[in-house]
């Protein structure tokens, strides 16, 4: 079984040897693997798993199964089980994606992924995947979700400490963690014992750098810079005016923003991320028709243009998240 799939064990048991007392092929001279128990059990499980077990593992979003899949990936990569590595990689990516979607849709689902589990998966991801891979993307999303769902400074500090161990490998959630602390816990982070001196210096640098970026006028200009649908035709001026009216309302009205995202008032001068999130949320509601366009001052905006505005705002938010950690570099 170990010799399958072109693994590094492939020729180990077939090489001729005159001295059978030291060739690691008998009970008296076993092959010893220097691995921990859980990863080794995961490897043995996937080697002997029945088709039904494999199918079930692809649907199970429980943390124990995710851990096992991660260990399967780790061991398959280490010992060159090519087909197992391919399966474990795609299955783990899919299961993480499903888990995130379930948690976003169902508020009863447990929100924050256990830190020890995500750290373990992240280390395996770093060893087996490239930063542009689908697995890496899903792991980043798990980190980001843990950041956004943190409800106390202690909780988000725990996530940040774990992320700091990876330096900028997971740059987006790390920057997001610093940003959340700066905006949501702006009144308490300076005296917090949960953050160390280096983290507080980064937060001060972030406060200074963010205070000098993106005026409200500049942000509104960026939000308006999307390509309208050709179908809005002669009504384009009204379409543009409707979107501009909505973004002006959302960008300039702090009370409305605070009703959607918890942000401290003193963070208003630089909190462009929350402004982008609010516009994204409002545009999504319009596209999904979960709110009357008239109530959002967008009755004159063409349906296709609403979708384009949403995609454009999502791109702006993604780009902002990608460069966020740069603001906290000392």
From TrEMBL:
It comes from the Eukaryota. This is BTB domain-containing protein. It comes from Panaeolus cyanescens.
């Amino acid at each position: 079984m170990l010799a399958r799939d072109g693994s590094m064990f492939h020729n180990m048991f077939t090489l001729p040897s005159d001295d059978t007392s030291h060739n690691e092929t008998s009970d008296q001279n076993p092959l010893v693997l220097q691995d921990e128990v859980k990863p080794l059990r995961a490897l043995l499980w996937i080697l002997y798993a029945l088709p039904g077990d494999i199918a079930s593992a692809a649907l199970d979003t429980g943390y124990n199964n995710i851990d096992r899949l991660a260990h399967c990936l780790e061991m398959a990569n280490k010992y060159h089980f090519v087909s197992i590595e391919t399966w474990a990689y795609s299955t783990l990516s899919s299961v993480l994606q499903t888990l995130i979607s379930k948690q976003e849709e169902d508020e009863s689902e447990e929100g924050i992924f256990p830190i020890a589990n995500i750290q373990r998966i992240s280390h395996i991801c770093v060893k087996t995947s490239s930063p542009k891979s689908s697995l890496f993307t899903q792991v980043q999303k798990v980190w980001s979700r843990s950041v956004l769902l943190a409800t106390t400074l202690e909780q988000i500090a725990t996530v940040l400490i774990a992320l700091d161990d990876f330096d900028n490998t997971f740059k987006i959630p790390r920057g997001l963690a610093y940003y959340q602390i700066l905006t949501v816990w702006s009144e308490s982070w300076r005296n917090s014992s949960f953050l160390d001196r280096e983290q507080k210096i980064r937060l001060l640098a972030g406060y200074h750098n963010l205070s000098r970026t993106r005026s409200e006028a500049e942000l509104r200009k960026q939000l308006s810079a999307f390509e309208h649908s050709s179908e809005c035709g002669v009504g384009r001026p009204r379409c543009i005016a409707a979107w501009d009216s909505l973004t002006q309302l959302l960008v300039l009205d702090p009370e409305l923003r605070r009703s959607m995202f918890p942000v401290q008032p003193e963070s208003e001068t630089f909190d462009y991320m929350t402004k982008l999130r609010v516009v994204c949320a409002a545009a999504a509601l319009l596209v999904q028709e979960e709110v009357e366009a008239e109530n959002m001052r967008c009755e004159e905006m063409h349906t296709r243009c609403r979708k384009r505005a949403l995609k454009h705002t999502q791109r702006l938010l993604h780009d902002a998240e990608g460069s966020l950690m740069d603001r906290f570099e000392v």
